[in-house]
Amino acid sequence: MNEHQNHIPVMLEETLELLELHEGQSVVDATFGFGGHARKVLEKIGKNGQLIGFERDEAVYEIVKKEFKQPNLLLINDNFTSLRENLEKKNITEVDRVYFDLGISMFHYLKSARGFSFSKDEVLDMRLDSIGPSAADLINGLSQNELADMFYTLAQETYSRQIAKAIVTQRRSEKIETSAQLERVIAGVVKKRGKINPATKVFQALRIAVNDELNNLSEGLEQALDVLKKDGLLLVITFHSGEDRIVKQFFKRKSQEGFLKLENKKPVFPTRSECLANRPSRSAKIRVARRV
């Protein structure tokens, strides 16, 4: 079995319904991943449509480009912050639909060996590409206050200052270079909270910071709006409050400016049955807006 065959796309049926897909449309999948949503989108738009998929992670891109051979699919190994530039290079000026699925795939937690998960002893990297500092660079290079602010701001970690102090104390004697090392430092400060591992929020904050996820999302939304045709739809699936806040505020601001019309004033949530069958879906929300 391939390492991604157990990947289950989140809120697939809701996404397809909300995108209102038709034969011949041009669609951008800004976060292609292993193509869970893309397979069904390609069926909906047919051979006369076109799907342009962006995948930032080169390892994932190399896997999916061997698997997806559809002639109406254009796969691009790049961050969606370069969405507009890449479309211009392909002489694509506007598209009918753009969608983002901001979840991190199970491949990254289970197979990438980059330290995304505290349940494995791996090099503390967390980068989706090779650009910028790694998680270990931040853990060993930021000041105590900078670490504490990062943990609290990006993941609402209430023990952010105690954890930051423990990290700085530990790294004076030994650099923290693996996920297991970091998990042990956190466990020495914060006791287990129910079923939630005390390292969960710190690892989330690190991943967000390393990949500049929130700034990238803001830029990606702006570029998506730029390439959308009139009456085109922009759909975003978020998984934590930081992402959802950015999308909500962007949609509200652009609707007030007359560029977007909200399709759903309240976000769409997964069904209870999906939450039970696919645990990563539990925190998912969909927001949709129409270009005017």
Automatic annotation (TrEMBL):
| The organism of origin for this protein | candidate division WS2 bacterium ADurb.Bin280
* Keyword annotations: Cytoplasm, Methyltransferase, rRNA processing, S-adenosyl-L-methionine, Transferase
Family according to the record: Belongs to the methyltransferase superfamily. RsmH family.
Q: Which residues cross the membrane?
A: none
The EC number(s) given in the record are 2.1.1.199
Quote the gene name from the UniProt entry: rsmH
Enzyme kind, highest EC tier? transferase
The record's subcellular locations are: Cytoplasm
UniProt-recorded Gene Ontology molecular function terms: rRNA (cytosine-N4-)-methyltransferase activity
What is the name of the protein in this document? Ribosomal RNA small subunit methyltransferase H
Q: What InterPro entries does the record point to?
A: RsmH, SAM-dep_MeTrfase_MraW_recog, SAM-dependent_MTases_sf
The record's section on Pfam families has: Methyltransf_5 (PF01795)
